[in-house]
Amino acid sequence: MTISAKNKDQFFKEASKAFTLPKNTHEMSELLRGILTPDEVEQIALRWQVVKSLLEGEPQRDIAEKLGISITTITRGSREIKHGTGIFQKIYQRFTGKKL
């Protein structure tokens, strides 16, 4: 049985809502570690470091070397920063208190 696109969208919206409900960093960490595999947790953490590093102006090659990841992973983050919705910038500003 396959899941319909409508159901997939509904499931994603429900998951998105669930991720707004933890009351603190500890609860969010527990939720992430409970729902994701250890590798997925590591990948999310690395991708956040990519976003932060890009927004702080670090060159992509330096980021790849520092984090031991491919340029392709960094390019995806860079493309989202340049052409996406602006959510990375918004969250970065809330996280750091720095204006971009």
Search tags:
100 residues; mainly alpha; 6 helices; globular
Characterization of the model:
The protein has 100 residues and is mainly alpha-helical. It has six helices and no strands. Helix 3 (38-55) packs across helix 5 (71-83). The model has no long low-confidence stretch (mean pLDDT 95).
The count of helical stretches stands at: 6
The shape, in one word, is: globular
Radius of gyration: 16 Å
Quote the distance from N terminus to C terminus.
46 Å
Strand content: under 5%
SSE string, helices as H and strands as E: HHHHHH
Helix content, binned percent: over 70%
Structural class given helices, strands, pairing?
Answer: mainly alpha
Low-confidence stretches: none
Report the average pLDDT across residues: 95
**Using DSSP, what is the number of strands?**
0
Largest sheet: none
Explain briefly what this protein structure is:
With about 100 residues, the protein is an all-alpha fold.
